[in-house]
Design goal:
The protein has about 325 residues and is of the alpha+beta class. The protein is about 25% helix and about 45% strand. It has three domains: about 100 residues, Beta Complex (RNA Polymerase Alpha Subunit, Chain A, domain 2); about 80 residues, YbbR-like domain (RNA Polymerase Alpha Subunit, Chain A, domain 2, Beta Complex); about 100 residues, RNA Polymerase Alpha Subunit, Chain A, domain 2 (Beta Complex). The longest helix has 22 residues. Keywords: Membrane, Transmembrane, Transmembrane helix.
Length: about 325
């Protein structure tokens, strides 16, 4: 007689299950679960301590009051009780927020102090009668406020920004570029600039946009507390311009002439800044506006030599690595 393969396979599987789930194995499994249950009950019946946190909220703040420095947003405390209750307290949303009534804790002069004992009493209302709070961690339970006094303050970057190779940071833009700062008169008068939290941005070649937090002040509040920051990199290019040489610290009865009378000044500048620099209308060559190259008569007088040193005294904003092509030139001193 021919045996079909599916029935044969099912038979093997059934025999395998019957060997596993025999009477002895089921008895062993029962006692294993039972002993595990006893162990769990005994463990949960032991006394434990564990730290928890509960949200803290300000309540009944009048509409004309601005909290400029808030207390901690959570209260951390340690509870001692049986293990099963400690486990229950560890469940998500086990605790509701506790509230600090503004009217109860304000001194009426811009500050307030929340009593840890009052917070502890509110926490006890959410615990079992057998639970004991062994400690409330030290935190910031004070706050400051004012009645809407504020001023507009510009935002500035704090940190380091380094674009990619052959680029430099041409411009930083903030949106908004200033924020409202709320504080008491004395604190407000001392704040002239609001800085971002310290930033470290590097290796970028396109416009980079970030949302950044503003640095916090003691007893002051910035609105908004976050701004958008855009970083604009620009390509660096090597350029040069001919600049007349001037003599400085000259006596009224003398004239110092240099040979040559002009010197080429090399510098590095961003492509965008280069487009804004003044140029000759016909030749489109750069004009020396903003550059000043000098020789110092006092240096020549004190250290006579065949040549005098050339210095770049002034250069326009946005240019860097400025250096004259010649560091010394011939000169002649004439009597007027």
């Amino acid at each position: 007689m021919k045996i079909s393969r599916p029935h044969f396979t099912f038979g093997i599987f059934r025999n395998f299950l019957s060997r596993i789930f025999n009477k002895e194995f089921l008895i062993f499994l029962f006692f294993l679960v039972l002993s595990g249950g006893f162990w769990l009950v005994m463990t949960l019946n032991e006394t434990y301590e564990r730290e928890f946190s509960i949200p803290l909220r300000m309540a009944d703040v009048p509409r004309n009051v601005v909290i400029t420095s808030s207390p901690d947003s959570v209260v951390r405390f340690t509870v001692r009780d049986k293990g099963y209750l400690i486990a229950a307290y560890g469940l998500e949303d086990a605790f509701r927020p506790v509230f600090a009534d503004y009217r109860l804790y304000t001194d009426g002069r811009g500050r307030g102090e929340i009593s840890p004992a009052d917070l502890q009493r509110q926490i006890y209302l959410q615990l079992s009668k057998s639970s004991k709070i062994t400690s409330v961690k030290n935190g910031k339970f004070s706050f400051s406020f004012n009645f809407g006094r504020h001023k507009k303050v510009p935002v500035r970057l704090l940190g380091t920004v380094t674009p990619g190779n052959n680029y430099y940071l041409a411009h930083v833009e903030f949106v908004p570029d200033s924020v409202q700062v709320y504080a008491a008169r004395g604190v407000l008068d001392s704040i002239q600039t609001v800085y971002t939290e310290r930033q470290h941005v590097s290796n970028f070649t396109d416009v980079k946009e970030l949302t950044v937090n503003l640095r916090r002040f003691a007893d002051a509040k910035c609105i908004p507390a976050r701004v958008k920051m855009r970083l604009y990199p620009d390509v660096l290019t090597e350029e040069s311009v001919e600049v007349p040489i001037e003599a400085i610290n000259m006596p009224a009865d003398k004239v110092l002439r240099t040979f040559p009378g002009k010197v080429r000044v090399n510098f590095v500048v961003g492509a965008y800044r280069l487009r804004t620099m003044p140029k000759n209308a016909e030749t489109r060559e750069l004009l020396p506006a903003g550059f000043r190259v000098v020789v110092n008569y006092k240096e020549v007088e004190e250290h006579p030599a065949d040549k005098c040193h050339v210095y770049v005294l002034v250069s326009p904003n946005g240019v860097r690595n400025v250096r004259p092509a010649l560091t010394t030139v011939d000169y002649l001193i004439e009597q007027r």
